[in-house]
Amino acid sequence: MLESSIARAEAYFNDKNISSENKEKLSKLLIVFRKNIDDKTFEKLKEQNNSLKTASEQIKVQIDQTGAEGVRKSQATLEVQKNVQELLKSSYTSETDKQLLNTGLDNLAAAKTESSANSAVATLKETITATQKRNKPAEDKAKAEAEKKAAEAAKAAAEKAEVERKAAEAAQATQAETANVNNTAASKWAIEDGYTWHTRNGHSTVIPPGGSLPPGYHWQVP
After folding, report:
1. Contact, 33 vs 45, CB < 8 A?
2. CB atoms within 10 A of CB 160
3. 218: closest CA among 208, 200, 201, 210?
4. Is the pTM of the predicted complex or chain greater than 0.90?
5. Which of 10, 31, 207, 221 is deepest in the core (most CB within 10 A)?
6. Taking the mean position of all CA atoms in its chain, how far away is CA 121?
7. Residue 8 phi, psi (nearest 5)
8. What does the alpha-carbon distance between residue 94 and residue 150 come to, in Å, rounded to a whole number?
């Protein structure tokens, strides 16, 4: 019985989740306990054994809670919780799957030990995988439809841009053609490029209304 109490206390003493205060408390109890065994002070051992067992039980609760909280705060668990929240927000997740996911979160929050917290995380991972598998067909269909609409929109935009480009080119051509025709009610002077009104002699000509500007000439604007 004494060996069992000591073994249990030593296991808790070396647990990674024990607090420094509890470690010090357990250390003092073990020192006194072992001293009485060595001194063969057996009349005190029963009382001290009960004290050691009680302290061990209390410390076990603290160790379990610390371990469970460590699991809940781990990066891996935070990633699992993130995945759950994304699925809960998804329009493709069924109400049944949402209930399972929420139950999994509740079980994780209620876990009292590191083992139960790890078990809750494992169950959540399985639920996440199953939910993603059920959601995939609808997600793939929606993605394909979105890509199709995007492609159609891009094609329509490209066709519109091409129509606008051709219209602009046609307008420019018309404008240029109009600029090369004498649209006035009277004749206009056309002067060879490189010459002015004052040096036009031999390098100019008169264009009647409706006539076109010869290549290499420009209109003389008074």
Report:
1. yes
2. 10
3. 200
4. no
5. 207
6. 21
7. -65, -45
8. 28
